[in-house]
Amino acid sequence: MQEVVLSARSPIRRPSLRLGYRLTALLLVCFGLAPMAQAVGPDTDGAIPGSNNGEGVPTATPIDGSGIASRYPGGKNIASDPAVIFADDFESYTSPSQLTNNWDAAYQLPNIRIATETNNVFSGNKSLEFSLPISANEVSNSAKKIINPTQDTVFIRAYTKFDPGYQVTASNHNGLRLSARYPGPGIMPPPDGTGFFLFLLQNHIEGSPRIGESAPGFTHLYSYWPRQRSAFGDHWYPTGLVVPFDSGIGEDGQQIGNRGDWLAFPSQYPDFRSMANFLPQRDRWYCCELMLHANTPGQNNGEVKFWIDGRVVGDFPDLNVRSISTLKIDEAHIGLHAQHSERINKKWYDNVVIATQYIGPMVSATTARGDFNGDGFTDYLLFNPSTRRTAIWNLQGNAFLGGVYGPTLPAGWKVVYVADVNLDRKSDYVLFNASTRQTAVWFLNNAAFMSGSYGPTLPVGWTLVAAADMNNDGRPDYVLFNPGTRQTAVWFLNGTMFTGGAFGPTLPPGWMLIDALDFNANNKPDYLLSNPTTRQSAIWYLNGTTFAWGVFGPTLPSGWTLQGAADFNTDAKSDYVLFQASTRRTAVWYLNGGTLTGGAYGPTLATGYSLAFP
Q1: Fewest C-beta in 10 Å: which of 13, 58, 349, 583?
Q2: Mean pLDDT in residue range 435-452
Q3: Which helix (H) or strand (E) covers residue 263, if one does?
Q4: Could you tell me how far CA 432 lies from the centroid of its own chain?
């Protein structure tokens, strides 16, 4: 397998984009368009082949966007949903001692902090930080929520991140926990199913590292249940492997060993499917979700399932964890524990939700970009270089509804972006004059010109690519690109007034900056990149102007260019807008993050016009 490395260079940081994709291409045909989507193959024991030390993407089918979170952009008011038991975005706290205003317990307070650093917050302005101090003694940090009334089925979702150097060699419980009547560690549940059960979604290297495993360890379940192998819990891996070793005999007459019951007794677990182990990258946010469904007493219909970023990465069906209906899920925990820690290790949590239905990843709270007529749908802005005339085509999704002429530009100027610069909830033109390097904003009322204002003049060699709120002050900022050096930069604005600037990451050779918008629903703009030579696309996730991580997007068909992105199917996820110059045809590729989910043709442009936005 070949590792694809897309590196960024800047004075601030030297990130890299590593993807464990096989180079075998899978042809997906969407309305006559043929993108190249890269396939991922599972390894039965180790990580996803070709990934960086096992760091890769899950292989299972993504959720269709029907989770509770899809109905609450940005997570706003999600606690009001009738299926939600509890939600906390940690924005209300100034001290960890206040956690018990909402949680039923929080400990150890000296090791808990309300984090406010941009890199350590997924959404909003605050997150919860647990720390393990340097210590030879056991430390257990946790926030506990009692579930009352108790439930048969519970989902818990949180965004989590390990610190960049996270390394724990001893027992290291962390993550999301659901349990029923758990009495404490070191106790075997009674095998008749009348006692208790616990399932913790965690990362930890249990014993010696497995193939492809490195810190913080593969994602797996730490489990207490009636068929438990040891007093201190079993470790269930998505592949079907279980630790500790079992010297018993399976239904095939062979020693069970480290096979889970689902592999040793497959006739009892007919719905189990082995999946690739998943190793998260440190210093990166992930949306983690754990579901626990307690079986109907007397039936093997229990299930424990978990998702990473909306994709199933582990599923254990056909379980029997109880024999009495009164044994129900009564607690949920998040936390960080270790028997000892040789360095200060940290883990962050944000946007925790506990519910009785699938929750799913957050969706962006961003309103429709380039919506000129206020109907909630992105519209096309067209430009005719010969006549300098603009036109607005009102769309509903990919369907053309009607059009109207916009103002004609002066000689030498072109529209490079559309944004609400004066915060009147109406789209404005952002203009650039390549000869003078001057910028300007034309304030519009739908298609009517109202007034204009000059913006700052760019330095030599720089071009204006986008206008997006890069510092979370609610106002669009300029996103700049220097094709000669491949450096990016952000100019922070108050309206059209320059207030400061910062360099962003430098692009690798051959890549162009296409757009800046939110792809992972954390309300922070990300970079959309394109390589015209290979037709490959990529998304660089940012924290302000700092590179966080990146993924490849779909490859474009020959003859098509990537124009920009916007949410065309109102699922609160950014989609690609494509243009074919030879036919003047447009198309929309619907995405879930960087994954192509479908496509549709948009309207064909009139002769002489190009697509200015998106």
Answers
A1: 583
A2: 92
A3: helix 261-264
A4: 33
The four Cα atoms 423, 424, 428, 432 give a dihedral, to 10 degrees, of -30
Residues ≥6 apart with Cβ < 8 Å to 213: 46, 47, 54, 205, 277, 279
Cα–Cα nearest to 272, from 282, 259, 263 = 263
Measured distance CA(398)–CA(587) in Å, rounded = 8
Angle at 533 between CA 532 and CA 539, to 5 degrees: 50
pTM recorded for the entire structure = 0.68
Contact between 588 and 398 (Cβ < 8 Å):
yes
CA of 394: how far to CAs of 177, 369, 486, in Å?
Answer: 48, 12, 35
pLDDT digits (tens, 9 = 90+) for 299-318: 999 999 999 988 899 999 99
pLDDT of 151 reads 98
d(CA 201, CA 288): 9
Instruction: Quickly count helices (H) and strands (E) in the chain.
Output: 1, 41
pLDDT at site 59: 27
One-letter amino acid of 349: Y
Phi first, then psi, for residue 111 (nearest 5°) are -105, 10
CB 217 within 8 A of CB 205: yes
- Report d(CA 585, CA 574) in Å as an integer: 20
Greatest CA separation for the chain: 83
Q: Is the dihedral of CA 199, 203, 209, 212 positive or negative?
A: positive
Q: Do the beta carbons of residue 86 and residue 158 sit within 8 Å?
A: no
Element (DSSP H or E) covering residue 566: strand 560-566
Is residue 477 within 8 A of residue 470, CB to CB? The reply is yes
Burial class (CB in 10 A: 0-12, 13-18, 19+), 327: buried
- Identify the three-state secondary structure at position 97: helix
For the purposes of burial, counting CB atoms within 10 Å of the CB of 250, is it exposed (0-12), middle (13-18) or buried (19 or more)?
middle
Residue type for 594, please?
G
**pLDDT value for 367:** 64
Handedness of CA 207, 212, 214, 219 (dihedral sign): negative
Compute the distance between CA of residue 273 and CA of residue 262 in angstroms, rounded to an integer: 9
Residue 571: predicted pLDDT? 76
Find how far residue 85's CA is from the centre of its chain: 23
CB 483 within 8 A of CB 442: no
**Residue 387 φ/ψ, nearest 5 degrees:** -95, -10
Rounded-to-integer distance, Cα 437 and Cα 519, Å:
29
Please provide the DSSP assignment of 420-434 as one string. Answer: -SSSSSS-EEEEEET
Q: Which two tokens stand for residue 168?
A: 């724990």
Q: Please state, in angstroms and rounded to a whole number, the distance separating the CA atoms of residues 115 and 367.
A: 28
Measured distance between the N- and C-terminal CA atoms of the chain, rounded to whole angstroms = 36
**8 with 15: CB under 8 angstroms?**
yes
